[in-house]
Amino acid sequence: QNSSCLKFVLCLLALSISSICLKHCCPRLAFRSLVRKYNCDICFTPMIVAADFLRSIKARDSEFTTNERDRPLIVQFAAHDAQSLADAACAVAPFSDGVDLNCGCPQRWAMSAGYGACLINKPELVKDMVRHVRNQVDNPNYTASIKIRIHKDLRQTVDLCQKAESAGVSWITVHGRTTEERHQPVHYDAIKTIKDSVSVPVIANGDIKYLRDVESTHELTGVDGVMAARGLLANPAMFAGYEDTPLQCIWDWVDISVEQGTPFTCFHHHLIYMLERVSSQPERKVFNSLSSTSAVIDYLQNTYGSVHDLRT
Fold it and tell me: InterPro entries from the xrefs (predicted)?
């Protein structure tokens, strides 16, 4: 690990494992527990709509679960008014280390509701939202950060970041693409420009698939940390330097899932991602058809061996 570059996980944010898995049974805490075993420094929750979180006990129970080992933890909110964000921050502050305002989600539903990436065009509102959190959370060490995308005119992005900095933002995570871009190359030069324009820490995000991507991104941009999401789905041990998911990590996921009661659909889907790069197409076809936890465990033991085999 490069001591000057923290490794973050944006845990299952805007990832399409499956609509059923994400909406009803996504093992947020379980997956954070796994990546923390493999050199992830800070974990984020998925994006939570602040207004719904405040309005509904059911939403709070389903969207936010943690335990005493789940730290440091940043709770990411979608919001479009300062007071809702501040109220949500106050609600989770006793159980977390900071909140992050999502200004980067490009999904149509989010932007049409005034959330996500549309906020990069409202720098005064973002400034006000950061300031409200800073002023209302009764903990001077509690962080208030933002995650953004970039503008085509980078001067607008720099202005946004400098306004957020003036309001007391703790750090800024930059996904190095515009709102319209999806799979185009990451604009590392833009991330570097933003890093050079503010004094608060800047975190880079986008196309982090291997540990070498963490190192090259740090070298190209000078950022203070690197955030990954999709890369960690394929290999939760990426930050520990593994090229592909090691067998130990797979069995760690089994143990954590059984211990925390992770629903089968999500337990299985995560393993599909983890095994994709290390299994053949016929093996994947068989594995994808399995329909119970016991069948999955039997398959893993018969195909890859057990943790005991690793130690003999």
Answer: Aldolase_TIM, DUS-like_FMN-bd, DUS_fam, tRNA_hU_synthase_CS
Does 260 count as an annotated binding residue?
no
Ligand-binding site membership of 240 (annotated): no
Query: What percentage of the chain's residues is helix, strand, coil (to nearest 5)?
Result: 50, 15, 35
Residue intervals in the chain for CATH 3.20.20.70: 8-240
117 is in an annotated binding site: no
The CA R_g of the chain, rounded to the nearest whole Å, is 20
Q: pLDDT, tens digit, for every residue of 220-229?
A: 999 999 999 9
Q: Which option is the CATH number for 8-240: 3.90.320.10, 3.30.365.10, 3.40.830.10, 3.20.20.70?
A: 3.20.20.70
- Are residues 126 and 134 in contact, defined by beta-carbon separation less than 8 angstroms? no
Note the pLDDT of residue 17.
30
Cα(46)–Cα(42) distance, rounded to whole angstroms? Answer: 13
Predicted TM-score (pTM) of this structure: 0.91
Residue 263: predicted pLDDT: 93
Q: Which residues are catalytic?
A: 105
